[in-house]
Amino acid sequence: MQLAIEDVSKRYGGENWALRNFTLQLGPGVLGLLGPNGAGKTTLMSILATITRATSGRVTWNGTDIASDPDGLRATLGYLPQDFGVYPNLNAVEFLEYLAAVKGLDATASKRRIDELLNLVNLADVRKRPLGGYSGGMKQRVGIAQALLNDPKLMIVDEPTAGLDPEERVRFRNLLSELSGERIVILSTHIVSDVEATATDIALISQGTLVAHASPEELLRRVEGKVWEWVIPSADLNAARQRHLISNSARRSDGVHARVLGDTPPNGAQPATPNLEDAYLYCLTQHRAGSANQPTEVGVLA
Amino acid sequence: MNSARVLYHMVRADFLERVRRYSFLLTLAGALWVAYGVATEQVWIVVGNGYRGVYNSAWIGALMAICCSTFLSLAGFYIVKNSVQRDTDTRVGQILAATPMRKDFYTLAKTLSNFAVLACMVGILMVAAVAMQLMRAEAHSFSLWKLWSPFIFFALPTMLLAASAAVLFETLPLLRGGVGNVIYFFAWTAAMALGATGFDDPTGLQLLYRSSRQTLQAIDPTGTDNFHFSLTIGGEHAVRTFPWNGIDWTANVLLMRVGWIAVAVALAYVASIFFHRFDPARSWFKRRPAGASTPQATTAPESASSSPIGVAHLYPLPKTQSGIPFFRIVAAELRLMLKGKRWWWYLVAAGLAIACVFAPFDAARGGVLVAAWLWPIFVWSPMGSREARHATESLIFSSAHALSRQLPAVWFAGVLIALLAGGGVGARLLFAGDYRGFSAWLAGAIFIPTLALALGVWSGGSKAFEAIYIVWWYIGPAHDIPGLDFMGTTPASSNAVPYLIATALLLAAAYWRRRTRMAYA
After folding, report:
1. Residue A272's pLDDT band (boundaries 50, 70, 90)?
2. A131 and A105, same structural domain?
3. pLDDT of B439-457, one tens digit each?
4. Distance in angstroms (rounded) separating the CA atoms of residues A209 and A192
5. Contacts of A183 in chain B (CB under 8 A)
6. A residues 41-80 closer than 8 Å to B (CB)
7. Which of A3, B68, B348, B493 lies 20 to 30 Å (CA to CA) from residue B166?
8. What CATH number should be reported for the domain holding residue A93?
9. Which residues contact residue B80 at a Cβ distance below 8 angstroms, ignoring those fewer than 6 apart?
């Protein structure tokens, strides 16, 4: 089972490149796709889900170009888009039955699968309620269920935990981890903790290009010795932000505890254990600094 | 910020958002098409005993302006009746609702923005009027005032009225959807009839009627005994001309036109009373689900059951399938089409279907079938656009064989609805051995959902079908006009061939359009 993205670029009119020469090879496991707003994550997802065509380059699924056989991929694809709708007059069961029919699933088997999925996403109690009355989080769970309808070998989920409460978020993370054994899961998110909990691989993307593709452990190793905890008076925080890359700050009784990323520590700072958020910011900042005199602006994490 | 400035920015933003959409170009193209029709004498006014005015500035201006205020007040309404809906869809409405914006300002701004769009169309016809006079060269004198004053006093007030009616319809829950589109058509028809009864109608037809009659009386007194006045598309040609120098814009006449502007503004203010201010509690008015014992909240609360977190137990799916996948999609599409309809809708549909079987044959083939194939208009109208309307495109288009299975299934489900609704007439024609009538009926049963599907896929909404179908239904089947009767309601008007050809072309167009919407077919 292999998904290969080979030199893929996507241009939206004029010279607006959403993706540039993007290359990535994926096998079974969960790939966390991380990047700031407008990095090209959703465009990449849409190309992989056969929703939009790449301007150049190709994507192959088990060696077959998806442009020549899109249905080969679609038959084993589970896709949860970032923005999707539901039919408000249908209930969850009817909506999933509709999509099961469109996906060409067996009638008897899909009924059983729908029951399982509604239990899995915790919607069994409201299965007969019209979707028009569902909250955002409940609709999101319907979306998760539909992505799993056809027992997908490739799952593409774009911001899947948006709108979910903490309990449901944990449930979904567990679900992704369990499902990842025999399939490829691509998880696009702003939420680093979601990736931290589930991803076996991480791809950092910025300005339409691949910044890094590594395991979480490798990424963390890149920032070892580059994360510092610095206690400063709260009045000095703004000035410190001007001089250093600060990934996080917390107010304590002895002042502000700031996490500083850099090769050399500020005066009085102590080494800290890096986390994935530090690695993400560090890699992104390094990439921006290195690309065409871009300002070293730090992306804001949700 | 003062009120005028607030209003200006609300109108400006909405107007700019519209004119930068591709659909605005289509709107302008439509106006050009109307202008072309008038300039090439496919539309004209015949008065008295086959007279038309000499193509001078006054007559060309009046002709073009009347075309605007009649045809464009109908088409224009459907074009602009989406301004409030767009704010809902884009969720800009929720942001606006949280500002100090007044409701009457909002509806007035939407009216003015609608008006600005329609005024652009009128502007095109104003320019075309100049071109027409130069092309025709029947009169040597050129007066911009005479050419354009009918636009200013006839067309623009009517456009303002259509603009405010569109906002009013959007704010009234009952008229917001397809029902409103149908009701507007009949209201528009009634307004046209108003002009014929001598009432000073909003379009200005009555004013033009009186003025042209007065002028003609001086030239040909015999022609005014049973004075004939008609705005014609492709009908009888005028054989004689008479000079007409325009309407005398007296204070009374102008006051009357200002009166219609006042009506339009009043409608905009009435709309503000019903405007929901994007309150979801007021837009969610579906019936309560069966078994619910308490009134339904705006949105259902999050499920509170606390089953243990985790563990995905999914049984593997079989490799083989039971049944034919295509017919499962057809069944699913049928359910989607019919879900949410109330019991009385089914009752009326069943009554009409039964009447098709048992009513006297001529009545069944004529009136009953005409009604039976109008009743499901809102079942057909979302065909082809439901996926865009409800943002399910990405879910459906990423499924295997979506183009080759789902689109034909939608079409087939629509045809089944037509067959069920008017099947009685088809069966009676077949058993009576009237194969010509049967083939015309069958062509109609296939043509209607195909038209809905093609217009839905192309326009991305249900409004185009609702507007075109109701007008066509009224002119064709309801009045047995042979060339336009797609239902074959009489032996004389039964002709299957053109509608079978049209069906094939529309199907191809729908397929092609959907194919281009998908990255990979």
Report:
1. very high
2. yes
3. 999 999 999 999 999 999 9
4. 19
5. none
6. 46-47, 49-53, 66-67, 70-71, 74-75, 77, 79
7. B348
8. 3.40.50.300
9. B114, B117, B118, B162, B163, B166
